[in-house]
Specification:
Layout lengths: L1 H4 L4 H9 L27 E4 L6 H9 L7 E8 L1 E4 L3 H14 L5 E4 L11 E6 L2 E6 L13 H9 L6 H5 L4 H4 L3 E6 L1 H4 L3 E3 L20 H4 L7 H11 L11 H10 L2 H7 L6 H8 L15 H7 L6 H7 L7 H5 L11 H11 L29 E4 L2 E8 L9 E7 L2 E7 L2 E3 L6 H4 L5 H9 L2 E11 L3 H6 L1 E5 L7 E4 L18 E7 L10 H13 L3 H15 L7 H4 E14 L10 H8 L6 E3 L10 H13 L4
Parallel strand pairs: 1-18, 2-12, 3-4, 3-13, 4-9, 7-15, 13-19
Antiparallel strand pairs: 5-6, 7-8, 10-11, 11-12, 14-17, 14-18, 15-16, 16-17
Helix pairs in contact: 4-17, 4-25, 19-24
Length: about 625
Amino acid sequence: MAKITRRDFVNGVLLAAGATMIPPTAYSNDFLNLLDPEYYPPSLTGLRGSHPGSYESAHQRAWAAKSDWGDIEKEDTVYDLIIVGAGISGLSAARFYQKKYGDDKKILILDNHDDFGGHAKRNEHTVDGVMKIGYGGAQTLEAPSNYGKHTMEIMDDLNVKIDEFYKAYDRSFYKDHGLNYVTYFNKETFGKDSTVACKIGHYAYVMDGVTIDVRKLDDAINDVPLSDEGRKQLLNVVNGGDDPLKDIPVGERRKYLNETLYFDVLKNNFGVTDQLVFEIVRSIPNDLASSGCDVMTCMEALYQGAPGFNIDTIHEVFGEKKDKKGDEEEPYIHHFPDGNASIARLLVRKLIPASASGNTMDDIVLTRFKYDKLDRKENKVRLRLNSTVIGVEHEGEVKQSEKVNVKYINKGKTYQVSGKNVVMACYNMMIPHVVKGLPEEQHAALRRSTKSPLVYTTVGLKNWKAWKEKKIAIASCPGNWHQIVFVDYPVSMGGYEYSANENEPIVINMIYIPYSEKHGVDPRSQFKECRAKLLGTSFDDFEKEIKSHLSGMLAGTSFNAEEDIESITVNRWSHGYSWSGTDLYEPDMRKNAKIGRKQFGRITIANSDAAARAILYAAVNEAKRAVEEIEL
């Protein structure tokens, strides 16, 4: 396994840097041949996501207010549009701009990472000579029936056929192999390793086709490694105990759920005192929730899947039937093998046709991009990676200005480029640190914008025999760093085949939502604490945790971490999902986002942060709005 630990720094940073390393004298205003033909970030393992080299200059600007960046080399070209951020919002903004003003317009897209797509990140693992695809962030086209006209405009433009996913996703896979939902309790936290075929809570992490209730919960909880009193308390909670809503008038129940702290109900209504019970319930998985149930209202906790209320009563509160027809009609299957990275790749191919071959949603899956074609002088759209923007300023007075100057750092050197208009499609909390002259109210609103930290880890395994032996499709894992672990979705597209046989290589996914060490810490403080924790955690530490986790969960099977794990990619997002606020903590975050995203002269603002909502259609909608605000 030394080959993985070496990737702590080598594969995550030096290979990416080495592929772009050229003599300083070779730089020019053309930026021709900036990337080597062998440059290919999706194949890198080790620390990815917010990888070393992607955030240091931004932190110097935001944390230390650094303003002296040395000599500046200016590019002669004045672009029609400069976009800061090559995530789905920034890429969509470029496409909307083309559709509105013509394909002949010159567009420059800058991004601080070594790959495009933002959180829509593609991971490739080569296992025994077989390339297996995973994703390091944005997972699925969630609920496409809810997409508005702007998102569907992009989907149609990219030739994405929603119905094709019904053919690509094998909905019988998990049942055919007897793979179920389990909960894993580790030795370090609970005294012994125990994998129990049960789901604690009413919400199944969305994996279409997975069997959930293999055993009766009352029986399964007997195998949970708790004290007799702890099991009694947990069983009381999952069975709904003395329903907290029973004495509350029906018309007042929603108000109660929205205003009452969930952990108070656990203590006061269910008599929970066992700290391990709190830990189990706190980490019931939902990576969109951002924080644990300890700081959620009852309503928020219920949406996350926390137990304690009669689910039929909850449906009555909202006048819903238990099994809604809409849920049956639209399963959670709209998934490319690399998640939403395929949407980013489709957008880049549309914007820069020379970068990749093909023209369908299927052929994008196995297309290998030509990164050296992204930033060519002849391109109408140029995409420049490894470029951290550290200054954006109108030339002259804002109202009379005819262009905006953008300064950025690339390979340790400072450059300036000018555009007639700029779309800031980057993390919105960085905008007040780099855009000069913002109105005070807007500046303050953008400073409040924040993201919750998150880690998506993908692991290349030589086979998944142990998973079948243990009958695991997905595991909730309280007490571990990664609270969710699952075999990848069974999707075959464009010549790519998922691993239908347990003797074949596979990618497994592990999701880590870092929480504060203490219960009850407000979400914003948790985010700050956990960002520091993530940035201070080495790949070696992640590797040890991952190997220990999988070894404990798969104990008693044929699994051997040293032999079966071929590669690990840790997609560390210290700034992960856009935060919407909660009912108890900063419920005005979406209103705050509206103030922050206001047009400022020739600068408009996109990104899902501008909606304070972490979902694809928010990113696309904000891109559309930002472009519509631009006037030539």
